[in-house]
TrEMBL record:
Active-site positions on this chain: 197 (phosphocysteine intermediate)
Stated name of the protein: PTS beta-glucoside transporter subunit IIABC
Membrane-spanning segments: 289-310, 330-353, 360-380, 400-422, 443-465, 485-507, 519-539, 578-603, 623-645
Positions of region (Disordered): 154-175
GO aspect biological process, one term: trehalose transport
Cell location: Cell membrane
Domain (PTS EIIA type-1): residue spans on this chain: 23-127
């Protein structure tokens, strides 16, 4: 049985169970279990000892994290948020240590009554599911502030002051580092709050002399410790965000201060950037961008891999299994395989918003807007009024001519949308009245971000794509071996930014004529094989990271089936050198492809697409395809094996980051 503690009435009045509170959010225990008191006087005291974790701007709500780990919300009145703090006075401050019975606020009951609001004071345990085993309300009826109102039996896992003892089953590396650090700094009872910057965990401790620096330094995953600015700082390095997330899981959300953490990250990032030279800043910016892209893609990598394998199976069945592409079975299963890719803007919008600190649902809706059928049909119709700089004008907005491009399968526009939304939303909240925010904040945000992406970002990407398309056509006419090497090395970079659509029209034009063939599509096929080979080497060399081993195997298979996203975003970009060595391998394969003049007679590429290289008029092409594929696999594999990946890399990689603000 867990520890039993007491909760006290915060006000004089009539005690009631929470299911009798005149508000559905509380009575249905949406905010957690607890109790209510109908007040007869306005002075408010702390219902338990702990640390003040929340002070609402409108003064109607106070949060206290108790010494036992329960997170209490003291809500003063029903719907009193609309009164903008007028009937309340706060007598404590954020992070203050309070004891049960200490005065923390006062409320003017008459003002609340005149406003037509109820003054019911609610005490809700917001982390009920995590910490509460049983809550027993004392006899309902008249109580004085400071009287015992309820007894709280904690779950056994919450009875200890800090995570300690035997390691939990299947504990990952970051969770272990976090657990050991929390033990060595004195546990939950010695921690006021925890934030992080770009390399360090920053603890605010009650007694900063308690930790033994040498003992903390000896923890696996810890680089060093420091004491500065009233903080106990534990230097972790690049994986600090992952260790921080695990630490907060083991403590509770009340110990986190996202606002201070964001400020610390921004401050340390700015300070770090000041000392960087020009090229270092370029390198840092590129690294940050890749981090954002991979972090946004990681949550959907499993879906992409599964969808890619399903599409590969369907290719096998339609090529050799006798399944017709017009059959209903094919249509249904093909829809399963295509769905993740078609709706990728929605999925990436959601995950990118989680990473960059914007509203995931709002950004997902922006993704839905961009692939709305009527907008997709505008692009699909192929009808253009005229062209500007090679970009076809196919629509207008408020009378302004615009170009609506293809957004299905796209990634980069949604990452931009998530970034812009993270900047727009705080700005909207600065001037939007609280009572209007729920409806009008998403309305304004969707309109501004959606129109910016549609009218500005999309056309910019199209203009860049058009320029790339013209350059590729010129390069192909100049020299096949040279174009094979350059396109092979850079094509997957175009995929990252959604610029690979510049290549599709060229391939389509080459294949659409009778007897059509495409050397360019053969080069693109080489890049898929190379990325798969890079992921395959990661699978071969990884022994201690089971998650990575499983992911890299499925990602390699998916790439060999023509779907490179799982390999790129789940493995190769995450371990940057792997993407580089794979791309160099693709450049070598592209060079050989150009020298042999390998032609493709269909769209399906990579290893599974070998039937696309068969031709009665050019029988040597299929053999040359296998030669090019072998060269590509060997080149990409050897480069990755010796220069691109080490087993130690898997122990330092960053997982998909949780919600953070950028900049």
């Amino acid at each position: 049985m867990g520890k039993v503690s007491k909760l006290f009435s915060p006000v004089d009045g009539l005690l009631m169970p929470i299911d009798e509170v005149p508000d559905l959010v509380f009575s249905k225990k949406v905010m957690g279990d607890g109790f209510g008191v109908e007040p007869t006087s306005g002075q408010v005291v702390a219902p338990a000892s702990g640390r003040v974790s929340i002070l609402a701007d409108t003064k109607h709500a106070i949060g206290i994290c108790t010494d036992d780990g329960a997170e209490l919300l003291i809500h003063l009145g029903i719907d009193t948020v609309e009164m903008n703090g007028k009937p309340f006075e706060i007598d404590t401050k954020k992070d203050a240590k309070v004891k049960a019975g200490d005065i923390i606020a006062s409320m003017d009951l008459d003002k609340i009554k005149i406003a037509g609001k109820k003054a019911t004071v609610v005490v809700a345990i917001t982390n009920t599911d995590e910490v509460v085993d049983k809550l027993e309300i004392k006899a309902v009826g008249k109580v004085h502030r400071g009287d015992e109102a309820a007894t709280l039996t904690l779950k056994e896992t919450q009875s200890a002051a800090a995570p300690k003892g035997k390691a939990p089953k299947n504990e990952n590396k970051d969770a272990k580092t976090a657990r050991l650090i929390l033990q060595k700094v004195g546990g939950r009872q010695n921690i006021k709050s925890l934030i992080h910057c770009i390399t360090r965990l920053r603890f605010y401790l009650k007694d900063d002399q308690m930790p033994n620096d040498d003992a903390v330094r000896s923890i696996p995953g810890v680089i060093d410790v420091a004491r500065a600015g009233g903080q106990y700082q534990v230097v972790i390095g690049q994986t600090v965000g992952d260790v921080y997330d695990e630490a907060i899981k083991q403590l509770s959300n009340s110990y986190a201060d996202p606002e201070k953490a964001t400020q610390a990250v921004a401050k340390t990032t700015t300070e770090a950037n000041k000392s960087l030279g020009f090229w270092d800043k370029i390198k840092h910016g590129a690294s940050s961008l890749i981090g954002i892209i991979t972090g946004s893609m990681m949550p959907v990598i499993g879906l992409l891999a599964a969808s890619g394998m399903l599409k590969g199976i369907m290719t096998i069945l339609t090529t050799w299994g006798g399944v017709s592409t017009t059959s209903q079975t094919y249509v249904i299963i093909n829809a399963m395989g295509d769905a993740t890719f078609y709706f990728l803007p929605i999925l990436v919008g959601f995950t990118a918003a989680q990473k960059l600190g914007s509203n995931p649902v709002v950004v997902a809706i922006i993704g839905s807007f961009l692939i709305y059928p009527s907008l997709v049909s505008i692009y699909a119709s192929g009808k253009f009024s005229y062209s500007i700089l090679g970009m076809g004008i196919n629509s207008n907005f408020l009378g302004i001519p615009i170009h609506i491009p293809q957004y299905t399968y796209s990634i980069f526009p949604m990452i931009f949308a998530a970034w812009m939304a993270s900047k727009i939303e705080p700005w909207i909240k600065k001037w939007m009245p609280v009572v209007l925010r729920m409806i009008f904040t998403p309305l304004v945000e969707i309109f501004l971000v959606g129109i910016t992406v549609l009218v500005i970002v999309g056309p910019i990407i199209t203009l860049i794509s058009t320029g790339i398309s013209n350059a590729l056509q010129w390069l192909l006419n100049l020299s096949l071996p040279l174009s094979g090497m350059i396109i092979g090395g850079l094509y997957q970079v175009l995929v990252i930014f959604g610029l690979h659509w510049a290549v599709i029209p060229i391939i389509s034009a080459q294949l659409s004529v009778p007897g059509g063939h495409s050397v360019l599509n053969g080069i693109v096929s080489v890049t898929m094989i190379a990325q798969g080979a890079g992921a395959l080497v990661v699978w071969m060399k990884t022994r201690h990271n089971k998650n990575l081993k499983g992911l890299s195997a499925s990602a390699a298979i998916s790439a060999f089936c023509g779907i490179t996203e799982p390999a790129m975003y789940g493995v190769n970009l995450k371990y940057g050198r792997v993407f580089l060595t794979s791309s160099i391998g693709a450049a070598i394969g592209g060079l050989v492809n150009g020298l042999l003049g390998v032609d493709m007679y269909g769209f399906t590429g990579s290893l599974i697409g070998f039937p696309s290289f068969a031709s009665s008029s050019n029988p040597s092409t299929l053999l040359n395809f296998w030669i090019v594929s072998a060269v590509t696999v060997v080149a990409a594999s050897l480069l990755t094996y010796f220069f691109g990946y080490k087993e130690e890399d898997s122990l330092k990689a960053k997982m998909a980051p949780k919600k953070r603000h950028l900049g």
